[in-house]
Amino acid sequence: MILPEKYQLLRKNFRNFAETEFTDELQKKLDIEGGYEAEMYHKMARYGFTGIKIPVEYGGQGGDSLAYVLMIEEFARVCPVLAIYANTPNSLGGGPLVMCGNEEQKKKYLPDIASGKKHIVFALTEPGAGSDAGGTLTTAVADGDDFILNGRKCFVSGAPIADYAIIYAKTDPSAKGSRGISMFIVDLKLPGVTIGKAEAKMGINGYPTSDITLDNVRVSKADLLGPLNDGFRMAMKTLDGGRLGISAQALGLAQGCREEAIRYAKERKQFGKPIAANQGVSFMIADMATEIEAARELIYQTAIAKDANSPDSSMKCAMSKYFASEMANRVAYKAVQIFGGYGYIKDYKVERFYRDARIMSIYEGTSQIQQLVIANTLLR
Amino acid sequence: MEYNSAKIEDFHDIWVFCEQRSGKLMETDFELVSEGRKLADERKAQLVGVLLGENVKELAKEIGGYGADKVYVIEDPSLKEYSSETYADALCQIVMDKKPEVLLIGASTIGRELAPRCAARLHTGLTADCTHLDIDMNKYLDFLKEASSIDLSTKKFKMEDTNLKMTRPAFGGHMMATITCPRFRPCMSTVRPGVMKKGEYDPAKAEKLVVEEYHAALTDPLVKVVKIVTEEKKGVDLTGAEIVVAVGAGISKDVEKGMALANELAEVLGGGVVAGSRPAVEAGWLDHELQIGQTGKTVRPKIYVALGISGAIQHKAGMQDSETVIAVNSNPSAPIFEAATYGIAGDLFEVVPKMIASIRAAKAAK
Amino acid sequence: MKIYVCVKQVPDTSGKVAVKENGVLDRASMKTIINPDDLNAVEAALQIKDQEGCEVIAVTMGPPAAAGMLRELYAMGVDKAVLISGREFGGSDTFATSQVLAGGIHHLGLEKEDIVFCGRQAIDGDTAQVGPQIAEKLNIPQITYAGEVRYENGKVFVKRMMENGYMEVEAETPVLITCIKELNTPRYMTVRGILDCFDKEITVLDYPTLENEPLIDKTTIGLSGSPTTIFQSFTPPVAKGGEMLEGTTQEKCDALAAKLVRKQLI
Asked: Residue A47 and residue C187: Cβ atoms within 8 Å?
């Protein structure tokens, strides 16, 4: 797809930012030490990256899904975990507010999120409920002007550094399956909120993931987000956007792998010639590039379809996520293979790309869930 | 419009602006006076220095010793420290009055500020940061034969051309350009420090020098100097170094001597930084800060010397953009030679001492 | 208060530089960028804008394609972008270029409280001459090699870098300042800036518009108004890549030294 000039300039700016700011030292530090680089988050906020999809009237940049996808792609091409920094406020964190928030809520929360002053995360998964929301055990019981929340959320990306979380809780115990669930904006400094210890992860280190435990947390009714008892449908809509973001992240990672692999294959010599001169290597590169191009076209088209409210955009988001994340894993595998022994050494970026890729076919709905979404849409 | 600077037949002699700071002449002044002497001889003209400052007349003699026939001295309290305004006023006044054909200025941070201001006021051309100057066409063609890839047999030049031919690197050193200023005078050029060769000081010439005072009308400058601070040079800056000598596993046989040779070579080349490949750093011969390559620093110096480095691609990734690469390795098929501009196959402990001697000799003979 | 920033679109000499067989640069095959020092000048201007809320005007002389660069400056935060373009201006050397830029700035209006920023030098020519020449032609003082700039109540305070230290200088506006890389880190474009910059107007000043400017005269601009000419351009004889020196060790070393002398490296 030939991008209009505006998007080309966006891409140039994202790339310049990533290549300049995401230094090798920072990437290595994040990978080895974990933690979180607050300064980078604020830097992104300064240029509007953390509010790219948030409307201008709420302090955001008013960009569309294609602009957002280009940003995540370019950031992930250099560093997949730092792409998440810019992703969360535009996607799972800020997304539900933009989509379902009333005027008061949007005015209260979005400007600080867009400007990077506050961090908001998304908490859906529970120990007993992942893709199957029917197992949600977190409850919210109305009490005067408040709801009282109890339960435990797990694998919450960004929880240790967040100010707010979008929490999904059962508000109608009699409703079956995914019904009777509502969304709440929960201030994580409220009494009764406990943030767990950051998980030790295989990759995507540098953006901590932990539990959130809610023990009789009193949340104002003003912070009920969207319609009562209809939260899960909203969650699914948010996840459409989230899946598009993960697709872009996988695409960027694959692009990074491809560039590393081509450079290395041209330089590395064995048997008196660059290894790229062997078809065994060059065909791997051809496969990588072909898959990446296919994913890119699918993702960009999906972004446009989503903004146009095309009826099949939900399915396309699932297709993008399914194809791009599996593709990224195949590409990262080949990149490591081309690097040989060096690809197994942490000094080389493909080693990290390989580990980072693994989560992409898992988080925000596994590949199998995406298949389910696609199949259900087609066979409906 | 008509310009006085266009009456080129009114302009004579080769002039050098002699920069002084805190009452001391700059090394570049002597280089320019020596070069100016050659040009004056080619043009059969006088070589004249211009010296601005306060109580600087005593310095003129030294300029004469390097070949100047005459020095104009403009003294004024407001010329004590450099100011683009008073200096431009003084220099432009004397140039308009005495009309030199050529005006050379050292390409220091002062010269490169002063010269364009003056050229604009004098309505003439200025060529920046020159590295080679000729007047005589035969000499210029000899230079082209050496320094260019031009096939001179296919080219026709006007041999009677007497314009100053000013050659300088362009496009980040990827090209060279020779510039002339045929319609206006003086031909102005700033000349890169350290490029022209300083001649021998001749006390007899210093005695023969004519010193003439000149008075210029100056006004108070609008840019006020509050303070001048002189700083010691900073510590080692590998990434920005213009000259890097890197050692590799090849010095393992005698590390101490290998490091000493590398240091000496770096100094002879003009003061460079000694760094190392990953094996050299991991062996503890050099600090981690000085590692070049994939997992270390990337450098783009003017001269990169690889001593006893095989040239794994991990290493090349950190130095392949260097302008000139000199490689010394005992293995003639070491990959470093593919990245080298000049390769010398041989034992570095034997090669480097001779290399140092040859470079010293070449510099002295320049 | 207005701040003018002079900028130039240049071929990216840090990448591959293509030279045609006749020794002339193949500009068409090269990527163009905003001259790096000019970005420091833009940043310096925008920092004063952040502080004072003044207007920042970017001015360039170049072909119509330079408009792309000006859009990027809009996206960084400049308020107005001016493109001085016309065949009459083509082939200008530094003298003629400064003449045109000074003429353009004069046309737009330079007042007592204004500042002009330039990059120290452009990477295609490395001359560092245009800044001071604009100052001379606008008849305002100049401060070059700015390593630190502060603005307060109509006065600039600048750390002017030298080879072995610096000068602290101050001047009242109007003044022209040339900026070096160490001055600051240029900001990126903002997303909103990019989304909006394609709708912003670029002011084009062509020759007929500037014709009546006192500085603009056929004898002072373009190729015919340029005092200098390129007598000969050429590439150095030895191409990069693997020349193995032959002979005894002594001969190899002597050959090396001779080559380094010829390339003016020692």
From this structure: yes
Contact C132, B117 (CB under 8 A): yes
Q: Which of A48, A80, A114 is the last residue of a domain?
A: A114
Closest residue, chain B, to A274 (C-alpha): B313
Cβ atoms A189, A214 nearer than 8 A? no
Query: Which of C206, C186, C260 shows the shortest CA–CA distance to C36?
Result: C186
Q: What is the pLDDT of residues C117-170, one digit of tens each?
A: 999 999 888 899 999 999 999 999 999 999 999 999 999 999 999 988 899 999
- The question of whether A293 is a catalytic residue gets the answer no
Å from B208 to nearest chain C CA? 33
| Separation between Cα atoms, residue C153 and residue C172, nearest integer Å | 9
Residues of B in contact with A269 (CB under 8 A): 313, 335
pLDDT digits (tens, 9 = 90+) for A19-60: 999 998 899 999 999 999 999 999 999 999 999 999 999 999
Across the interface, of C132, C233, C240, the residue whose CB is closest to B116 is: C132
- Tell me the average pLDDT of chain C: 92
* Of A131, A130, A137, A171, nearest in space to A152 by CA: A137
* Measured CA distances, B178 to A142, A292, B36, B194, C222 (Å): 85, 49, 18, 19, 19
Parent domain of C262? 236-266
Do C165 and C252 lie in one domain? The reply is no
Q: From chain B, pick out residues whose CB is under 8 angstroms from the CB of A264.
A: 313
Domains, chain B, in order of start with CATH, read: 4-213 (3.40.50.620), 243-365 (3.40.50.1220)
Give B246 to chain C, closest Cα distance, Å: 17
Closest Cβ opposite residue A347 in set B295, B313, B316? B295
For A345, nearest residue in chain B (alpha carbons): B295
ipTM given for this complex: 0.91
The burial of B271, by beta-carbon neighbours within 10 Å (0-12 exposed, 13-18 middle, 19 or more buried), is given as exposed
Task: Say whether both A190 and A95 belong to one domain.
Answer: no
Residue that terminates a domain, selected from A114, A145, A163: A114
| C142 shares a domain with C245 | no
Chain A neighbors (3+ CB pairs < 8 Å): B, C
Q: Are residues C260 and C150 in the same domain?
A: no
Residue to substitute from C10, C13, C101, C169, interface B, most B β-carbons within 10 A: C169
What is the C-alpha separation between A243 and A367, in angstroms, rounded? 11
